[in-house]
TrEMBL record:
Family stated for the protein in its record: Belongs to the HyuE racemase family.
Source organism superkingdom: Bacteria
PANTHER family: PROTEIN DCG1
Protein known as: Asp/Glu/hydantoin racemase
Record InterPro entries: Asp/Glu/hydantoin_racemase (IPR015942), Hydantoin_racemase-like (IPR052186), Iso_Racemase_Enz_sf (IPR053714)
Amino acid sequence: MRLLMINPNMTEAMTRPMARVAQGIAGDTAEIIALTAAQGFPYISSRAEAQIAGAHVLDVIAHHHDSVDAVIIAAFGDPGLMAARELFDLPVVGMAEAAILTAAMLGDRFSIVTFSPHMARWYGDCVRQTGLEARFTGVRCPKTAPVSVDTVATDLRADLIGLVEEATARDGADVVILGGAPLTGVASDIASEVQGLLVDPIAAATAQAIGLVRLAPTYGRRVARPVAKPSTGLSPALARVIAGG
């Protein structure tokens, strides 16, 4: 089994730890092919940036979909997720949606802890899109955004522990998602120091991608397939997919 993991952020330093976590979950079951965006932004932190990144995600999948069994979009806002599911006949998993669905399976109420207030409303929107808002206790984050996202997992470790404790003790969350690609690996690192269950989004996405491949969905007669049409200015690979090729 081969899983394509796309990091839509133009930061290889984020891709490496996500690939390690994903491969650790996959073990001998699947090979993780990890790719980093070649254009876009160092880190996606807004809906506008996610919209742009989503187009690049579709292009990357178009170039690789024939050689992999599933795709993981490795950015918490899941840029391009629903569009990719419309276009490609293989499982496409977003790490935000996967984390949310996993949290809902582990407990009654769940929260998201992240590292910047800029993402709080957007991450809340991710929950609403799953239809699980009634079980969501909210987003906890620092009051100010970090100057750099490169070292937030270590620089904000104590703050993240405190935020998890607030999410469980004050908000009533049974499960806490550590949201954002720079927080990959934090869940396992602090699990013994906090109350509640923690979810690492890329780990959840990998486990769900493997499960979906094993379910072997049949795409040949699926509904809501986009109408094939010509396009201008797209890469040949993506143009072929949109044209129904």
